[in-house]
Design a protein that fits this description.
By secondary structure, the chain is an alpha+beta fold. The protein has one domain. The protein contains two helices and three strands; from the N terminus they run ααβββ. A three-stranded antiparallel β-sheet has the order 1-2-3, covered by helices on one side. β1 and β2 form a beta hairpin. α1 packs across α2.
Length: 117
């Protein structure tokens, strides 16, 4: 009679690293999606403040972008439209996933609006 407990242990040891990798990768991807959503919300607030004639420094201070390590860039190149960029780096915790995604992973959201000033 074969030892079934030993077979189950070997199968568990083979599957465990794959399961842990998948679990950590799901957490990292969820964190990236969450942070992208947060940046989109902050970008909407930036545009609202910009339309209310707030300066660059007032926007950064009001939304505490430096505390959140978020960089803001506003480009007004042709006086017809304004482009807003928010950038943030997200740390990847999953070993091996940084071979697929850069570590830290750089998130960037942008929006273009008609020149309002």
């Amino acid at each position: 009679m074969k030892n079934k407990k030993g077979q189950a242990l070997v199968e568990f040891v083979i599957i465990l690293p794959i399961f842990v990798f998948m679990l950590l990768a799901i957490i990292d991807i969820g964190k990236i999606i969450f942070m992208r959503n947060e940046l989109e919300q902050q970008l909407s607030e930036v545009i609202d403040l910009y339309r209310n004639d707030s300066s660059y420094n007032e926007i950064v201070d009001e939304l505490r972008l430096e505390e959140d390590q978020v960089s803001l860039e506003i480009k007004n190149e042709d006086n017809e439209q304004v482009t807003f960029y928010l950038k943030k780096e997200v740390e990847i915790i999953t070993p091996g996933l940084n071979l697929i995604l850069d570590n830290p992973y750089s998130l960037e959201v942008q929006r273009v609006i008609a020149y309002a000033k």
